[in-house]
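Hi C.,

You asked whether I'd gotten around to modeling the 369-residue construct. I have! Everything is below, sequence then structure, no commentary in between.
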Amino acid sequence: MKRFLGFVKKEFRHIFRDYRTLFILFGIPIAEILIFGYAISMDIKNAGVAILDLSHDEVTEKLSGKILSSGFFKKSADLLSYEEIDQVLKKGKTKAVIVFEEGFGKRLIREGKASLSIIADGSEPNTATLVTNYTTAIVNDFNIEMAGSALNNALKIVPEVRMFYNPELKSYSMFVPGVITLILILVSALMTSVTITREKEFGTMEVLLVSPLKPVQIILGKVTPYFILSFINVLVILAMSWLVFGLPVKGSIILLLVESMLYILMSLSLGILISTVSSTMQQAIFISLVGLMLPTILLSGFIFPIENMPEVYDYLSLIMPPRYFITIIKSIMIKGTGLLYIWKETLVLILMTTVFIGISVRKFKVRLE
């Protein structure tokens, strides 16, 4: 029994000396419960709404104030005409536009009923549904307050809901861009990190280095097949989304393919960076899966709106490349926008790619020397 207890004690010492094991045992569960607890939220918080008030009377001002003071919404813009609705929704910060028609208050008093339009961004079906439901509930509550009681409905504001870009709220308009984003970063980063780490783990990297090929040529030779295969993946998914789901690319297909190649290149450079800090394939797989898959699903805006999360997660998601590519691919595929609306996200991906390649080349040379 003493020998057994001594052996257990030795194992505890080994565990507590290995910081990576302690991180797996305690760090990951804590991180996941915090991420899942706060990120997976179906509530609306600080969703951007724009107001197009063509009446500017007391009723519209009170109702606008009630909507914005509810805690669910924040004003993203004040619009002056209907032509601005499409522009503000394409920018992505506004989830819905609330339109008050001309003479809204006068019509309400004269006819006893007036219409309020809620125009939501249907490219995010879950968010669009929640935004319209919350707004409708606030309008109904305002009707009760204005009438004085639930039994007196002499005056009534009727919400009329419209969806831009995805009128039928088909879920594949959300999942197809998300699947492309997830597949590209996993295939490119994971496979690249594993294939380079495997050469170092098996001791064959030194054999390659004494060959006539230069180190840069070796790296390019390793990543080129994954670049081509990942690009083929993009073509296959886009073809299936069109043929199976009837989801065409509303914007420029050339721009979408160029942005996809940029994202693939960024993912490959990230995979090389992971390989430089990993000594075994298991470490590379662990870093790639845990560090990329869950954050891509939870913190990129793929399924759960980032604005619904605590502010710290908003800042954390800024370092996640999938957040920017999700915006790019949704804007091009669903909204039909051009480079004018996604140049910031494109610039961020270019900057990340440059940084990852620079760090990877430097650390790769140091490790091999």
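If it helps when you're writing up: The chain has a mean pLDDT of 81.

Thanks,
B.
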